[in-house]
From TrEMBL:
Membrane listed as a keyword: yes
Keywords noted in UniProt: Membrane, Transmembrane, Transmembrane helix
Transmembrane segments: 6-25, 37-56, 62-81
Organism: Citrobacter enshiensis
Entry keyword annotation includes Membrane: yes
Membrane topology recorded in Swiss-Prot or TrEMBL: Multi-pass membrane protein
InterPro entries: PQ-loop_rpt (IPR006603), SemiSWEET (IPR047662)
Name of the protein described by the UniProt record: SemiSWEET transporter
Leader sequence segment: none
Subcellular location: Membrane
Length: 90
């Protein structure tokens, strides 16, 4: 593995790890009221494009962190949408 890939993995790891506290907080409190639906929607879409880019270019330092971030941010987005639907139906 060359130094460029190592830099990519470290950078991707840092940005991916940054989502863990938010996921833990949302799972713990079940609250998403202070989370922007628009921001997470655009972010998850952007991450999915980075993931596709990584797959198409066969770049593991792009694929692995974006796949994990997609799952983490996607779970927050899913909970936000679910909570919005529940709120509207009350």
């Amino acid at each position: 593995m060359d130094y460029i890939n190592i830099i990519g993995f470290i950078g991707g790891g840092c940005t991916t790890i940054s989502f863990i506290p938010q996921v833990v907080l949302v799972l713990k409190t079940k609250s998403t009221k202070d989370i922007s639906l628009m921001m997470y929607s655009v972010f998850v879409f952007g991450i999915s494009l980075w993931l596709l880019y990584g797959i198409l270019s066969d770049a593991l330092p792009v694929i692995i962190p974006n796949l994990i971030t997609f799952v983490l941010a996607g779970s927050i987005l899913f909970m936000k949408v679910k909570n919005e639907i529940i709120q509207k139906n009350r």
